[in-house]
Structure formats: C-alpha cells, structure tokens
Amino acid sequence: MTDDTFFDTDCLSAFLWINDTDILQALYRGKIVLPDPVYQELSNPCIPHIKKRVDGLLRDGTALIQQINIGTEEYKLYDSLVKGLDGQKRIGRGEAAGIALAKTRNGILASNNYRDILPYIKKYGIRHIDTGSILKEALRKKLITEPEGNVIWQKMLDKNRKLPADTFSEYLNGIPL
C-alpha cells in the first residue's frame, strides 16, 4: 500500500484555479502524482496560468508526473477504461489514468468526478479522496479554520468548480470529522 495520491484534473484544478495550493503542499508534498494525461490536460495553452502553477508544484517537489507505459497492467486497464472495453463505460483520459495507477499501485485516487469514477472505486476497492475531504483533513490538522474553509470553498464555486454542497460548513455537517 502506498500513500501516493493520483490526482485527476478536476480535483487538482479546484486548488489551481484559486491559486491556493498551500494545503496540498502541507498535506501531500512529494505524494502528489499527476498521471501524464492529467498533466497534458492542465497544460492547455488556453489557460497558461494553470500550467505555470502545476509546473511550480513539480519544481518544488510537491508533485511528480507518472507515465503509463504500453504493455503494463496499468496501461491495459487505462486503455480499457478510455475505450469502454469489456462492457465498461468510456471515461476521460485523466480519470482513467488516475484509476489505473491508483489500482495497480494500491494508491489513493483524488477526484471529484463521481459520475465517472464511482463504479471503478467500488469495483477495484480504490481508496479515494475529493476536494471536500482534502479541506476536511486540513481542518482536522488545524491548517485551516472552518471559516477559512468556507472562503476557499466559495472561491472554488466562484471559479465554477463543482462541489457537493453550497458551503464547506454544509459539507462538514453531512460528513463526521
């Protein structure tokens, strides 16, 4: 079992869009793994400030990029998820890469995209976190207060990030600390 956390684009970008990666650096420095398809998505030339922020996480050692090599078990799973083989629903490259790496390396998947990932989390028994659980862990470790969490949450909503509640406090009321 590893503590490596394989981030999907949506979960990481929630923090990148608001230019607040301090929590990620404090909680996961050196354990954030960006599957190459996720890095490619975050390197979109239409949003150069996001790529610049990702590259900062790579430079300071908070994150690293992981390739998926053809012929490996992780590639076979990745390919089947992307193509929708074996009766599986087709999903995006970022989600597929995160699932394949988390499963084969017994790591943690960080994704907010429950519609695409939930069947595979259940099927493969993958440990999972999302933006809300990251903020909850930051609160538990006293990196933020609940009011600060609400400010961060609102900034993410203002940047059109999809979150499961209107406020961080509402999220916390639905999930025990």
Structure, explained:
- The chain is α/β, with parallel strands linked by helices and about 180 residues long.
- The protein is about 55% helix and about 10% strand.
- The protein is built from ten helices and five strands; from the N terminus they run E-H-H-E-H-H-E-H-H-E-H-E-H-H-H.
- A five-stranded parallel beta sheet has the order 3-2-1-4-5.
- Strand 4, helix 7 and strand 5 form a beta-alpha-beta unit.
- The protein starts with a strand and ends with a helix.
- The mean pLDDT is about 95.
Radius of gyration, CA atoms, in whole angstroms: 16 Å
Provide the low-confidence segments as ranges: none
Mean pLDDT: 93
In total, the number of strands is 5
Question: How many alpha or pi helices?
Answer: 10
SSE topology:
Elements: E1 5-7, H1 9-17, H2 22-28, E2 32-35, H3 36-42, H4 48-59, E3 63-66, H5 73-83, H6 93-104, E4 108-110, H7 114-124, E5 127-129, H8 131-140, H9 146-158, H10 168-174
Parallel strand pairs: 1-2, 1-4, 2-3, 4-5
Helix pairs in contact: 3-6, 5-6, 6-7
